[in-house]
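Can't paste images in this forum, so I'm doing it all in text. The chain is below; anyone willing to post the predicted structure tokens underneath?
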Amino acid sequence: MTLFDSRNRSKSPRHERIYALYEIAHTCVDFLAAILFVVGSALFFWQSLYIPATWCFLIGSLFFLAKPALRLARELQYLAMGDYDDLAERLNR
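Text version of the structure:
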């Protein structure tokens, strides 16, 4: 199995379920990051709210960091499931 191969998501019903769950998580993280950046931007209109605005940007940035981490976690979960058919095919070549 190759990491980040789009065909991995449809190898089995279990793969499809894992893909769907990670996509939901990825979308939620995307929305949270965007919302925090919009809120942080609005808070910068008031000088008294610079510290909360900065926190919104920092937390939003952490959510943006979580996005590739989720994708990698999904791929590692695929690997952990074992792809014995591909391994057996490679040995027979």
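Residues 10-91 form one domain. Residues 36 and 58 are 9 Å apart (CA to CA).
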